[in-house]
C-alpha cells in the first residue's frame, strides 16, 4: 500500500508538470493570437480607410462626369437654338454623346436626356405640358437632364411633355 501511495504521488507530479507545460504553451499561443489579431485589426482599419477614400474619389469623379455631361447637354442645346445643325455636326455630337455615355455606363450612371421617348413621371419631371399629338404622353423637349445611378433615379430630368 505504501508503494502505491508513492507511485500515485509521482504520477500526480508528472501530470501536474505536464499540465503546467500545457498551460504555459496555451498562454503563449494566446499571446501570439492576440498579436496577430491586433495586426489584423490594424490592417482592417487601413483597408476600411482606403475603401472610404476610394468611395469618396469615385463620388467626386461621378460628380465631375455629371457636370461635364450637363455642360455638354447645354452646349448642344445652344447650338441647336442658334442655328440648324448640319448632318456632320449632329453626328459629331452623337459621337461625343456615345463616348460620354459609355464612360458613364462604366460608373453605373445613366443620363436621362432623350426626347421623343414615352413620358415616365418617375424619371422625368413635367415642367410644362403641350397638348398635341396622338394622346400618348411623350417627352417633347428636355430642359435639364437627369440621371440614374445603378438604376435608381437620383435626379429627374425636367422637360416639356406633349400629350
Structure description:
The chain is of the alpha+beta class. The model has no long low-confidence stretch (mean pLDDT 89). A hairpin with a 2-residue loop joins β4 (146-149) and β5 (152-155). The relative contact order is 0.09. α1 (2-82) packs antiparallel against α2. The protein has helices at residues 2-82, 87-106; strands spanning 109-112, 124-130, 138-144, 146-149, 152-155, 157-162. The longest helix is centred in the N-terminal third of the chain and has 81 residues, at 2-82. The protein has a domain at 112-163: Roll (Nucleotide Exchange Factor Grpe, Chain A, domain 2), CATH 2.30.22. A 3-stranded antiparallel beta sheet has the order 1-4-5. A 3-stranded mixed beta sheet has the order 2-6-3. The protein is built from 2 helices and 6 strands.
CATH-derived architecture of the domain at 112-163:
Roll
| Rg (C-alpha, Å) | 35 Å
Q: Indicate the overall shape.
A: rod-shaped
Number of strands: 6
Uncertain regions: pLDDT < 50 for 5+ in a row? none
Instruction: Output the helix-strand order.
Output: HHEEEEEE
For CATH, the homologous superfamily of the domain at 112-163 is named as Head domain of nucleotide exchange factor GrpE
Mean pLDDT over all positions: 89
β-strand amount: 15-25%
Structural class: alpha+beta
Strand order of the largest sheet: 1-4-5
- Name of the top-level CATH class of the domain at 112-163: Mainly Beta
Straight-line distance between termini: 111 Å
Instruction: Count every helix, treating DSSP H or I runs of 4 or more residues as helices.
Output: 2
Q: Biggest sheet, in brief?
A: 3 strands, antiparallel
Helix content: 55-70%
Q: What is the CATH topology assignment of the domain at 112-163?
A: Nucleotide Exchange Factor Grpe, Chain A, domain 2
Amino acid at each position: 500500500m505504501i508503494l502505491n501511495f508513492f507511485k500515485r504521488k509521482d504520477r500526480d507530479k508528472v501530470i501536474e508538470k505536464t499540465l503546467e507545460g500545457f498551460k504555459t504553451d496555451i498562454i503563449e499561443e494566446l499571446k501570439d493570437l492576440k498579436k496577430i489579431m491586433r495586426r489584423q485589426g490594424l490592417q482592417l482599419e487601413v483597408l476600411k480607410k482606403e475603401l472610404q477614400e476610394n468611395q469618396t474619389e469615385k463620388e467626386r469623379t461621378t460628380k465631375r462626369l455629371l457636370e461635364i455631361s450637363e455642360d455638354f447637354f447645354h452646349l448642344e442645346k445652344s447650338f441647336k437654338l442658334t442655328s440648324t445643325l448640319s448632318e456632320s455636326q449632329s453626328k459629331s455630337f452623337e459621337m461625343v454623346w456615345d463616348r460620354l455615355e459609355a464612360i458613364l455606363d462604366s460608373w453605373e450612371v445613366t443620363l436621362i436626356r432623350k426626347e421623343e421617348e414615352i413620358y415616365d413621371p418617375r424619371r422625368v419631371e413635367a415642367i410644362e405640358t403641350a397638348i398635341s399629338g396622338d394622346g400618348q404622353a411623350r417627352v417633347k423637349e428636355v430642359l435639364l437632364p437627369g440621371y440614374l445611378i445603378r438604376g435608381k433615379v437620383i435626379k429627374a430630368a425636367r422637360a416639356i411633355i406633349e400629350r
